[in-house]
Amino acid sequence: MVEGFSIRYASKTDKLRVTSFLELVDEDFYPPLSQRGGGIPERIERCLDTDEANFLVAEPNANRGNSLLEEFMGMIGYTRNWKGHGTAYINFLATHPNHRNSGISKELCLRLEDELAGSGIKRIYLCTWSGNPAAMRFYESLGYCSYAIVLNDRGNSIDTIYYKKNIS
């Protein structure tokens, strides 16, 4: 694992930090998370207030003061049993702008895959948009294969690309 951070499950006490992180990276998504159905509050509720979903968060190893105010370095959200038993959906992945290209997203994905496989999940789904070639290359480098494209799904000439990966 890349040094300098650890990965853990988010808890309800992390709600403020999760909210701050989502707001920080909101405009990195198309459309922004705040403009999607339910916005950021509903996304957080769907992940922190159910047994089938959560976030894994990457945070600094060093105690640099009040941990309640420390920003996350990265975060991945998921929902188990998305398309029936044995499946999961990655609904969010981002790295803090100050920590990009340091391997955090890769470590979050690999850790989530291990955790999900250990709980009986056999296949993971996710999607991104055609204007995000870095994400497409990233997921493909981890073994995700595109299986569907919805043309103009996010606006004129902006397609949604669906990926899946068998993990066990």
Describe, in plain words, how this protein is organized in 3D.
This protein starts with a strand and ends with a strand. A 7-stranded mixed beta sheet has the order 1-2-3-4-5-7-6, with helices on both faces. The protein is globular. The protein is an alpha+beta fold and about 170 residues long. Helix 1 (about 15-25) packs across helix 2 (about 40-50). Helix content is about 25%, strand content about 30%. The protein has helices spanning about 15-25, 40-50, 105-120, 135-140; strands spanning about 5-10, 55-60, 75-80, 85-95, 125-130, 145-150, 160-165. It has one domain (about 5-165): Aminopeptidase. The longest helix is centred in the middle third of the chain and has 15 residues, at about 105-120. It contains 4 helices and 7 strands, in the order βααβββαβαββ.
Which descriptors would you attach to this protein?
alpha+beta; Aminopeptidase; 27% helix; acyltransferase activity, transferring groups other than amino-acyl groups; ribonucleoprotein; transferase; GNAT_dom
Please state the oligomeric state of the protein chains shown: single chain
The top level CATH class name: Alpha Beta
Mean pLDDT equals 93
Question: What is the strand content?
Answer: 25-35%
Q: How many H/I helical runs?
A: 4
Q: Tell me which CATH architecture applies here.
A: 3-Layer(aba) Sandwich
Helix content: 25-40%
CATH superfamily name? Gcn5-related N-acetyltransferase (GNAT)
Q: Which fold does the CATH topology refer to?
A: Aminopeptidase
**Which series of helices and strands comes N to C?**
EHHEEEHEHEE
What's the main sheet like?
7 strands, mixed
Low-confidence regions: none
Number of structural domains: 1
By secondary-structure content and strand pairing, the structural class works out as alpha+beta
Major sheet: order of its strands?
Answer: 1-2-3-4-5-7-6
Shape: globular
* DSSP strand count: 7
Radius of gyration: 15 Å
- Give the distance, in angstroms, between the N- and C-terminal Cα atoms: 22 Å
